[in-house]
Amino acid sequence: MDNPIEQVGGEECVLSKLTKTINYRSVIEKYKSIYKDTVIEFESFITNSSEYKTILDLKKSEHFLWIVTIKENVSDSTLIDCVSTVKWVESKFNLDECEIIMDYENFDSNGLPNNGGTEIVNFK
Hints:
Blueprint: E1 7-8, E2 11-12, H1 19-22, H2 24-32, E3 38-46, E4 50-58, E5 63-71, E6 74-83, E7 87-94, E8 99-107, E9 113-122
Antiparallel strand pairs: 1-2, 3-4, 4-5, 5-6, 6-7, 7-8, 8-9
């Protein structure tokens, strides 16, 4: 069953249209068991003014999951999940506020955490 379209200030929350992205953990596990060293666009959505794509970049022991936003031929990307030797990111989706809450940690060259925190990305 699809998620209902969330209304934010009278507008649709685009994140509610990216149902595979919202449930990305299960999607990543599915693709990781099949593919290595590849890039997969596993979801996209177009509004009147923007295009949103979810891109999964799989490496042998790393993965990166991006939401790419294209508006007026200008693209911007948000890293929403990552497991690598230099960075870790995990995200939660708040559809009521149309935002992504990302916890992250950066690692030094020895693999030790050197800084991290939480970032909120608004998609209103």
